[in-house]
Amino acid sequence: MTKSYVIKPELGKEYPVISHGKGIYLYDKEGNRYIDGSSGAVTASIGHGVEEVAEAMYAQAKEVSFVYRSHFSSDAVEKLATKLAEWAPGSLNWTFFVSSGSEATETAQKIAIQYWQEKGRPTKNRIISRWMSYHGITMGALSMSGHVLRRKRFTPLLADYPAITGPYPYRKPEDMSLESYALACANELETAILRVGPEQVAAFIAEPVIGASGGAVVPPDGYFQRIREICDKYEVLFIADEVMTGVGRTGKAFGVNHWGVVPDLMTLGKGMSAGYTPMAATIVSDEIIETITKGSGSIMAGHTYSANPQSAAVSLAVLDYVEKHQLVEKAAEQGAYLLARLKELADELPLIGDARGLGMLCALEFVKNKQTKEPFALSQGVGGKVIQKAFEKGLLIYPAMGGIEGVAGDAVIISPPLTITTEQIDELIALLKEAVIAVQQELQDKALIG
Ligand code: PMP
What's the mean per-residue pLDDT of the chain? Predict the structure, then answer.
């Protein structure tokens, strides 16, 4: 191999070079095949190599790829925003386009703060987030993320944003019903708002289902309904970070739809363009846009590639594909099958403490002791070992092990393209099982588990 000058995640390591992808499979130049079982950070939701998307990309590139948003709009951007307004719940009708999930959450942060400024309440400028959350890698987004591993190096972060505990049903106190646990967790928001002072809090941000920092952690019913009530009571905006859960991943168009809750701002990324181009968005309510229109009249955000027609055309083709092939409904059906198969694995293998998920966003959590749920220390990186073994066997899964140190164990996310068939899920499960058994054996040999 010729010398590489690309800065890769692990310096000094050689990475296979991918030649092409089709459906749920990726192929490297050596001829190895991989099942894309995590859609690379839960992104490739319609599978690889979809002709319609390639055609839309070419058609737009022939017309015009880039126009600067300060001067022009484009058909592609207008149509995409209209479609998103149709998809999004309530009065979430206005989209600000960006290129990554981190930009989308930072934009939401800025719009929330600006909204209160325009209302003459400039002290409302702090965002409450949750421990065990991930909202992006840029400094602003990290400052409102509870991903311990990713925050560590950069502490102190930009802002001393408060964080509360998110619901983690697998580790709820045993003597508490799920219903009271949901309320207790949500009520932590009220306590935090009162501690900080409602006049200092602009917004609360949460992932409907926790992704990268916990692994498909689904909140109990009642949690987000109570969160909405608290936000309304103290005039705090609710930002739903749907970067991972949005566009059908959980079996509904958006994660919050499972609980009938309408946020004030919503962020999208990943599945919005399914990996075909960088594309992300911040969608906001009529009320926010009306307030800013009456006030300064302009949102203080934006990047060079915001609202470029090329990415919009691709995203539009992806959303059309999702609609045409009823992938939201498929995610619910096939996701239920995937979860059932994962639960079988959890019943069988002592290393797996929990199998959980919603729609096609699923995860396994590994524990030292299944009875006591004792987690592995994060430094043991058991999830990482399973990911490596699965990789060697031709299966890609995604790490979720940045949660609260000493509480969260190692988890891996399994969330293949929404197009996956039942037979392909069986194929995925067979490889996953081999990988877990191999790591379990290794840990048993070293007497690290019972
Ligand atoms: N929010 C959530 C919920 C995410 O899962 C991610 C990415 N894992 C981000 C934000 C950041 O997105 P990006 O990596 O595209 O910046």
Answer: 93
CA neighbor of 349 nearest in space, from 334, 365, 363:
365
Q: Where are the domains of the chain?
A: 18-49+326-445, 52-324
Q: Does domain 52-324 have CATH number 1.20.1260.10?
A: no
Query: Ligand 1 centroid to 175 CA: how many Å?
Result: 34
Q: Band of the pLDDT at 407, cuts 50, 70, 90?
A: low
Residue 108: strand, helix, or coil: helix
How do residues 170-184 score in pLDDT, each as one tens digit? 999 999 999 999 999
The minimum-distance atom of ligand 1 relative to the CA of 136 is: 11
CATH superfamily of 18-49+326-445: Aspartate Aminotransferase, domain 1 (3.90.1150.10)
Ligand 1 pocket test: pick from 42, 134, 276 the residue with the most ligand atoms within 8 Å of its Cβ: 134
pLDDT tens for each residue of 261-312: 999 999 999 999 999 999 999 999 999 999 999 999 999 888 999 999 999 9
Which ligand 1 atom sits nearest the alpha carbon of residue 241? Answer: 3
Give the pLDDT confidence of 129-179 residue by residue, as tens digits: 998 899 999 988 988 887 777 776 776 666 778 999 999 999 999 999 999
Do the domains spanning 18-49+326-445 and 52-324 agree at the CATH topology level?
Answer: no
**Position 286, amino acid:** D
The residues pairing with 33 across neighbouring beta strands, listed in sequence order, are 27
Cβ pair 56, 317 in contact under 8 A? yes
Contacts for 244 with CB less than 8 Å, ≥ 6 apart: 42, 101, 207, 209, 211, 212, 269, 270, 361
Residue entry with tokens 């990789």: 391
> Atom 13 (ligand 1): residue with closest C-alpha?
101
Distance CA 410, CA 57 (A): 39
CA 101 to ligand 1: nearest atom: 12
**Residue 381's pLDDT is what?**
84
Nearest CA to ligand 1 atom 12: 101
The angle, 0 to 180 degrees and rounded to 10, between the axes of the packed helices 422-445 and 382-392 is 130
Distance CA 342, CA 287 (A): 43
Pocket of ligand 1 (CB under 6 A): 41, 100-102, 105, 134-137, 207, 211-212, 241, 243-244, 269
Mutate to test the pocket of ligand 1, among 109, 129, 135, 250 (most ligand atoms within 8 A of CB): 135
30 C-alpha to ligand 1 centroid (Å): 31
Q: Other CB atoms closer than 10 Å to residue 370's CB: what's the count? A: 17
**CA–CA gap between residue 284 and residue 266 (Å, rounded):** 6
Q: Tell me the two tokens of residue 298.
A: 């302009």
